[in-house]
Amino acid sequence: MENLSAFFSNYTLTLAITHILVAIVMFFIINWIGAKSVSVGYLQMSMVIKDESYPAFNFLFKAIAPVILMVLFVALVQSINCEQLVSYCYLIVVYYWIFRFFVILIYGRLSLTNWKTQILYWIASIGLSIYLYKIIDKVDVILPDPEALRDEMWILIILFLYSVINNMVFDREGTLSRKDNYIKHTHSHLKAKYNKIVSKECNNLFFIQMVYSIMIYENFNRPKIIRWIEYGRFLLTRKPHTLGIMQVTSSKWINDEQSIRLAINKIQSDTDEIMNNYANNKEEFSLFSIVCKVAGKYNKDDDYVNEVEQIFSTISDSEKTSQAFYSKYNYLKLNYDKNRFCPFYFNN
User: Number of structural domains, the chain?
Assistant: First the structure.
């Protein structure tokens, strides 16, 4: 009780606000560094199923990065003689994880998150921050003494073990199931909400599945609360913005339903253009390539195209969609290649 009483008397509002702001800045710094570290193993949240490689890197980065930034913050405030901000600095890491949880909640990614792993991150990260705070609280300066780095042998052993563990690869069966369920649940939810509009504007299964595939991904990246912020920014600037659930660029206010209609027109027009090019060039193609090309015209980013194609594959009956697509463009004299295993293939 005495410790709790001391905490409430010493942990001022100014200190709390400072720590919260530092935690929020820390969140964006770590996300930025993580995005730049994809090529070296950082695992970002997505709807595409991937192997969980580089587990050591991901664990160290996600669990320890907040603690490292907390220590750097302490070093900074000590250097500018603001030692009072060091008090209870481990709460920066606690606020960081609380803020990250609310971001996951706002983006509607609770069902996509591996909570067993997240809890391990929280325990390791917060536990280490408390441990280091007890050390920091006993010293005046936290910059290392050169003598503390003399045990090179142990450093080499640690690096070796890190390298061995980091090259292990684990199958992500739980992640696959979680993401598959998320896509199907989101598809059912969006279909129940917007089926009247989509069905009225689309008379072909291929276009319907294409629209929902893009809608699911755009909704994943721009949930309703983020779209509200975009509407607010649009009202303030009056400049063209990507608006609505389909993230259509517009210079005037459009709601979700209007964005769906505009997106459908674009998807159908882009597909017609792509198919006419194939017919003119007499090229062999697959429905997979058509999905990728249509998604690419919507957004050129390779990751975007890949994820939309994965969603399309998850929510579609490939044979029915292929047949609907073929019947739509039968006037182009496309020949269905019945000898291929995959029903997606056609040639001219």
Answer: 2
